[in-house]
C-alpha cells in the first residue's frame, strides 16, 4: 500500500524533530564555545576564539592532555597487540566455542559503567595499587579490548590459515609468517580497531574517575571545570574532545569499511 503524502510529511517531520532533539545539545556546546557571552545564553553577543585562548593558557589543560595521550596511545597499542593474538586464536576454534568465548569477553562492554568502575577500583585497591595512570590503562583495556577482538575476529574468521601453515612448513618462522602473510591482509582492520579503542578510551569519564586518583585526563578536567568555573572554556574543551572522537571514529569506520 502506497504511503499518503500526509503520512510522508508527518514521518519526515517526526524524523527531523528527533534528530534536532538528539543533536541540539552537541550543537549548542560547539556554538557557545565561540560566543562572546560569559554564560551559555542566547542571544549571542558575537563570535570569538578567546575561550580557546583561555583554555590553552590553562596549565591544567596541558597536563590533562598529556595524561590523555599517554592513556589513549597505550590502550590503543596494547589492545591491538593482545586483541589480534586473541582473535587469531579464537578464529581457529570451533564456531560454538568461539561464540561462547566472544560473549564472555564482551561482558565488560555490556555491564553498567558505574558497576564496572566500582569493581575495578575495588580490585585495584584490594591488591594494594596506588591509583594513577598505571591503574587507568589496564582499567581501560578491560572495556576497550572486546572491541578490538570483535573487529579483528570478524576479519580473521574467514582467513585461510592453510597459507600460514604452508609458510611454516616451508621454513618460515612464526614471526615471518605473521608479518608476510597475516599482517598485509588485516592491516587496515588493525588500524581501524586501534582507532576505535583509542576513541572509546579518550572519551571515558566514569572508569577514569574511579581509578586515576589525583591525576586528570580531559574528561575529568571537564568535570573539575564544571564544579569550579562555569564559563565557555568548558565548551571549548568539549568541542576539542568531540572533534577528536568523531575524527578517529570516522577514520576507523572508513578503514574497516563498516556498513552498519
How many beta-strand segments?
0
The name of the CATH superfamily of the largest domain reads MetI-like
Strand content: under 5%
CATH architecture of the largest domain: Orthogonal Bundle
Counting helices, strands and paired strands, the structural category is: mainly alpha
Largest sheet: none
What general form does the structure show?
globular
Radius of gyration: 23 Å
Total helices: the number is: 12
CATH topology of the largest domain: MetI-like fold
CATH uppermost class of the largest domain: Mainly Alpha
Task: Set down the secondary structure blueprint.
Elements: H1 5-32, H2 50-56, H3 59-91, H4 95-105, H5 107-110, H6 113-126, H7 133-156, H8 161-169, H9 174-203, H10 206-211, H11 218-228, H12 233-255
Helix pairs in contact: 1-12, 2-12, 3-7, 3-9, 7-9, 8-9, 9-12, 11-12
Defining key terms:
mainly alpha, Bact_Polyamine_Transport, cell membrane, 12 helices
Summarize the structure.
The chain is an all-alpha fold.
Plain-language structure description:
- This is Polyamine transporter PotC.
- It is a multi-pass membrane protein.
- Belongs to the binding-protein-dependent transport system permease family. CysTW subfamily.
- The protein is mainly alpha-helical.
- The chain folds into 2 domains: 5-34; 50-256, MetI-like (MetI-like fold).
- It has 12 helices and no strands.
- The protein has helices spanning 5-32, 50-56, 59-91, 95-105, 107-110, 113-126, 133-156, 161-169, 174-203, 206-211, 218-228, 233-255.
- Helix 1 (5-32) packs across helix 12 (233-255) and helix 11 packs antiparallel against helix 12 (233-255).
- It is globular, with a radius of gyration of 23 Å.
- The two termini are 28 Å apart.
- 28% of the residues are buried.
- The model has no long low-confidence stretch (mean pLDDT 85).
Amino acid at each position: 500500500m502506497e504511503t499518503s503524502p500526509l503520512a510522508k510529511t508527518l514521518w519526515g517531520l517526526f524524523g527531523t524533530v528527533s534528530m534536532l532533539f538528539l543533536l541540539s545539545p552537541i550543537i549548542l556546546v560547539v556554538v557557545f564555545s565561540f560566543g562572546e557571552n560569559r554564560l551559555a545564553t542566547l542571544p549571542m553577543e558575537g563570535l570569538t576564539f578567546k575561550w580557546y585562548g583561555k583554555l590553552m593558557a590553562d596549565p591544567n589543560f596541558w597536563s590533562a592532555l598529556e595524561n590523555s595521550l599517554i592513556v589513549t596511545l597505550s590502550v590503543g597499542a596494547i589492545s591491538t597487540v593482545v586483541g589480534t593474538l586473541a582473535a587469531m586464536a579464537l578464529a581457529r576454534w570451533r564456531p560454538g566455542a568461539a561464540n561462547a568465548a566472544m560473549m564472555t569477553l564482551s561482558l565488560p562492554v555490556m555491564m553498567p559503567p558505574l558497576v564496572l568502575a566500582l569493581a575495578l577500583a575495588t580490585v585495584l585497591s584490594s591488591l594494594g595499587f596506588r591509583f594513577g595512570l598505571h591503574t587507568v590503562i589496564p582499567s581501560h583495556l578491560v572495556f576497550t579490548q572486546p572491541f578490538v577482538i570483535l573487529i579483528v575476529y570478524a576479519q580473521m574468521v574467514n582467513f585461510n590459515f592453510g597459507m600460514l601453515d604452508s609458510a611454516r612448513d616451508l621454513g618460515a618462522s612464526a614471526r615471518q609468517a605473521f608479518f608476510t602473510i597475516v599482517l598485509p591482509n588485516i592491516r587496515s582492520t588493525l588500524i581501524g580497531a586501534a582507532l576505535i579503542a583509542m576513541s572509546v578510551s579518550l572519551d571515558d569519564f566514569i572508569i577514569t574517575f574511579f581509578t586515576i586518583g589525583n591525576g586528570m585526563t580531559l574528561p575529568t578536567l571537564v568535570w573539575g571545570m564544571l564544579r569550579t568555573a562555569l564559563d565557555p572554556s568548558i565548551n571549548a574543551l568539549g568541542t576539542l574532545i568531540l572533534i577528536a572522537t568523531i575524527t578517529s571514529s570516522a577514520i576507523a569506520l572508513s578503514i574497516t569499511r563498516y556498513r552498519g
